[in-house]
Amino acid sequence: MSSLIEPGARVLVTGASGLLGRSVAQRLVAEGYRVTVLQRGTSALQGVDEVRGSLSDPAAVARATQGQDAVIHMAAKVSVSGAHEVFVEVNVRGTERLLEAARTAGVTDFLHVSSPSVAHSGASLIGAGAEPADPDHAVGSYAKTKAQAELIAEAHGRSDLNVLILRPHLVWGPGDGQLTSRIIDRARSGRMPILGSGAALVDSLYIDNAVDAFLAGLRRLPQIAGQRLVLTNGEPRPIGELITGMAAAGGAPAPGLRLAPGLAKAAGAVVERLWAFSEKVAGPRSDEPPMTKFLAEQLSTAHWFDQRQTQEALNWTPRISIDAGLKLLQEHIRSTGSVL
User: Which of 105, 108, 115, 250 could form a disulfide with 184 if both were Cys (CB 3.0 to 4.6 A apart)?
Assistant: First the structure.
């Protein structure tokens, strides 16, 4: 068997409706891989086979994994609010369902997409590595359930699959309707706060670099299986500087709202309780709370990572710097009128 996953291989991608999943699927097609996507709606991607369904549907998951050589699992419930059980169903049970179906279908290689938040208890991370996932101390439903899912994937990797875990950190750039769009929209309306001095160093990852890393990870997966790797640009920036740069790229003024970190965390905890009560009474909301305890911690504590192991394992280095990425983002918004 080849020690590389070469173009021509059959690859299932979950989560192709999001920026990263869509971008990875498009690059795989462009490089000659045979791509299938599993999602509830139409993907609108050219050159892929579609299986309609969700991770909660065992029959759809079984159909999607049939005949595949490898799986890239990106689908997840991503939010700072919502019922915990929904996160469990998608992130934990969905991942377990997909792993079992992949094993049954004879898939040999599984790239599991996780998050640095699975090993983050809220304290500063300075030059950190990819520490083991810790559901007990991870903050919030998303991080806790992603930590559980990662442990399940690692267990399968020790028994019947080649499993590689990649943890991209704060992916941003053109087409990003999550982090990038929200920062710009809130800056435009004067609702984007800087916590404290804004000097906490934070890593992030430009979208094109993320796609490059995922392709490198898939290709080398049989050689580097069993590892967990955090992916970043390797350019820690003060969080206030990064937020201001994204706002400027979108033509928004620099955020003028300043909050003390302690106050923001306390307010976030209150907002979370009010949000949960609102959803219990009126059902799920389509918007996100303006502040949560987790978000306050992310905006006020350092979290950057040692990239030496990642770059060596993947034989990859980021080709687009943060400054170059901000310029590309600005050009995209000026030409299209939107981040998307």
Answer: 250
Task: Report which residue type is found at 247.
Answer: A
Strand partners of residue 186: none
pLDDT at 1: 42
Q: DSSP letter string over 72-109?
A: EE------SSS-HHHHIIIIIIHHHHHHHHHHHHT--E
Calculate the CA dihedral of residues 240, 243, 249, 255 and round it to 10 degrees.
-70
Say what the alpha-carbon torsion angle 225, 230, 233, 234 is, to the nearest 10 degrees.
Answer: -110
Tell me the pTM.
0.94
Q: Which residues pair with 126 in a beta bridge?
A: 304
Q: What is the pLDDT of residues 75-130, one digit of tens each?
A: 999 987 788 999 999 999 999 999 999 999 999 999 999 999 999 888 899 999 99
Q: Of 33, 110, 142, 275, which one is the catalytic site residue? A: 142
Domain residue limits, the chain: 10-171+205-234+305-320
DSSP class per residue in 16-60: TTSHHHHHHHHHHHHTT-EEEEEESS----TTEEEEE--TT-HHH
Across the chain, mean pLDDT equals 94
Write the CB contacts of 172 (distance below 8 Å, at least 6 apart in sequence).
179, 180, 204, 205, 206, 207, 246, 325, 329
Return the CATH class of domain 10-171+205-234+305-320. Answer: alpha beta
pLDDT tens, residue by residue, 214-227: 999 999 999 999 99
Burial bucket for residue 39 (CB in 10 Å: 0-12, 13-18, 19+):
buried
The mean pLDDT of 197-206, rounded to a whole number, is 96
Assess whether 206 carries a catalytic annotation: no
